[in-house]
Amino acid sequence: MKLKFSCADFTFPLLPHEKVLALLNLLEIEAVDIGVFEERSHHWPSQIVPSPAKSAKRLKSQLEQRDLVAADVFLQTGPEPPIAAVNDPDKAIRAKNRDIFKAITEYCCELGCQHLTGLPGVIHQNTAAARNWELAVEETRWRLEWARNCGAVYAVEAHVGSILPDPESALKFLSAAPGLTLTLDYGHFAYQGMSDERVHPLLPHASHFHARGGCKGMLQATMSDNCIDFDYIVKAFAEQNYEGYFCLEYVWVDWEGCNRTDNISETLLLKSKLASVLKT
């Protein structure tokens, strides 16, 4: 297996986007994950929806100038996961989310990107648990089919605060939506004190991988504090002939201490660590 690295553009949110792309060149990374988060990324859904093809054409030209490709488009329809969540009990919000998803899928494909990530939904406190789950499955199945018809792979990220906070619920969700894949991030589980062994059953379902240091109580950790067994993960992916990207996904956001790392240094350390695994 040849490791394919990408880096999230939201790793460096304080830089203008064209400078993020220039920095990725300097870091010798050949692909970028595009964050499309309402009100908190370089590209917002509300800015793209009116003309997705035009927006994609402009960004694709910028990527080509830097010899970069888009590895993933990561859609978050609200400023925070609970806002305008995929399983919002309000039918009008869900309908708007579908329109947004249609446009972002077009944007993704016009970029030449074949992978699209979304969130699975959250637990709405004033809605019955069964209804939260039912809506999440229903909307995810719809997204999966729409993306498939457009030639894109659709994945969700099980994460802290979502309807999929642990590996067991993620596996149950995957069985409820045949064909669904995961954008897998061990950090969300390590943060909660879960062992890597508990997460490993998710590896065969990953079509994209978010890599960054993590440990109990730290959603994002330096590589010196990291407790995630990346050696095992890379070797397991090699055994299953994983064809997706390893996204170096250190972030900078004032949430759960995710603004306390030197993202350039940690990205380089992580890239070196992952690349060394298959050489031993």
Please give the structural blueprint.
Blueprint: E1 5-8, H1 17-26, E2 31-37, H2 45-48, H3 52-65, E3 69-76, H4 91-110, E4 115-118, H5 129-149, E5 153-156, H6 167-176, E6 181-184, H7 187-190, H8 196-199, E7 206-211, E8 213-215, E9 218-221, H9 230-239, E10 246-248, H10 263-277
Parallel strand pairs: 1-2, 1-10, 2-3, 3-4, 4-5, 5-6, 6-7, 7-10
Antiparallel strand pairs: 8-9
Helix pairs in contact: 3-4, 4-5
Verbal overview:
With 280 residues, this protein is α/β, with parallel strands linked by helices. 40% of the residues lie in helices and 17% in strands. It has one domain: TIM Barrel, CATH 3.20.20. It is built from ten helices and ten strands. Strand 1 (5-8), helix 1 and strand 2 form a beta-alpha-beta unit. The radius of gyration is 18 Å and the shape is globular. The two termini are 14 Å apart.
Q: Give the CA-CA distance, first to last residue.
A: 14 Å
> In CATH, what is the class?
Alpha Beta
The largest sheet, given as strand count, sense and whether it forms a barrel, is:
8 strands, parallel, barrel
The radius of gyration computed from the alpha-carbon positions, rounded to a whole number of angstroms, is 18 Å
**Helix and strand succession?**
EHEHHEHEHEHEHHEEEHEH
User: How many β strands by DSSP?
Assistant: 10
> How would you write the strand order of the largest sheet?
1-2-3-4-5-6-7-10
How would you describe the shape?
globular
User: Please, what is the CATH homologous superfamily?
Assistant: Divalent-metal-dependent TIM barrel enzymes
What share of residues are in beta strands?
15-25%
